[in-house]
Design goal:
Length: about 140
C-alpha cells in the first residue's frame, strides 16, 4: 500500500489540513478574544474570513470522506469531532445573528476552539501513526 497513489493523495490532503489548523488556531483564538474588547475594536468585519476558514475545513473533510478517509483507523473520531463542530457553529451563527459579541467570543473560545484543537489532535495522531512520512513533510 506504500505506492498507492490514492493513499498518497489522501495523506497529502490530511497533512494540508493539519498545517492549516496549525496556522489557524492562534488566529481564531485572537479573533475570539477581540470580541471582548470595546465595541469599536470588535472584529465583526473579520467574520467572513472565519466563515471561509470553516468552509475550507469542512470541504477538506468532505473530500477526505469521499476519497476514502475511512481507511484511517481514527476516521470515526474525525467524523465525530466534525459533527460536534457543526453543532457549535450553529450556536455561533445564532450569536452572530443576535449581534452578541460576548456570546460570539464565548462560543468560539469555549466551544469551537476546543473542538478544533481536538480535531487537530486526531489529525496529528493519524499523521503520526498512519501517514507515510516523506522528505516533503
Amino acid at each position: 500500500m506504500h505506492n498507492n497513489p490514492i493513499k498518497s493523495q489522501l495523506d497529502e490532503v490530511i497533512i494540508s489540513l493539519e498545517q492549516y489548523l496549525n496556522r489557524s488556531l492562534p488566529v481564531i483564538k485572537d479573533l475570539a478574544d477581540r470580541f471582548y474588547k470595546s465595541v469599536d475594536l470588535q472584529p465583526w468585519g473579520e467574520l467572513p474570513q472565519l466563515t471561509e476558514a470553516f468552509l475550507w475545513i469542512f470541504q477538506v473533510f468532505e473530500t477526505l470522506a469521499q476519497a476514502g478517509g475511512s481507511s484511517y483507523a481514527d476516521w470515526k473520531n474525525v467524523e465525530q469531532v466534525m459533527s460536534e463542530i457543526s453543532r457549535e457553529l450553529q450556536a455561533l451563527n445564532d450569536a452572530i445573528s443576535d449581534n452578541d459579541p460576548v456570546a460570539v467570543g464565548d462560543i468560539v473560545n469555549y466551544e469551537v476552539l476546543p473542538k478544533l484543537e481536538e480535531l487537530h489532535s486526531v489529525i496529528s495522531a493519524i499523521i503520526k501513526h498512519e501517514v507515510a512520512q516523506n522528505e516533503a513533510y
